[in-house]
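Form 7-S
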Amino acid sequence: MKKVEAFIRPSKLDDVKAALTAIHIVGMSVAEVRGFGRQRGHTEIYRGAEYKVDFMPKIKLEVVVRDEDLEQVIEAVLNAAKTGQIGDGKIFVLPVEQAVRIRTGDTGEAALI
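Output:
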């Protein structure tokens, strides 16, 4: 099993969710986060004063999938989240040693479905 963590633009969340649902990914976690990479933030003017916004709002999406579904999930997120501009985000893949469904005690891949 693998855990896919994707940091995407907030405006792309609905597109990514639809893409994952279309390939039968039924569970995901979503969190609003802030960060920066090459985008480096921007300056804004508030009440006549200019200030720098260092951390950009992003969405962190987490999905645990079977090994055989990994490439399809990465492709779905990549295609749905891509705009071609700096700040589109990143996808990270981590190994998952065990999964347990608390309600039933199901373990491994059975806990994912």
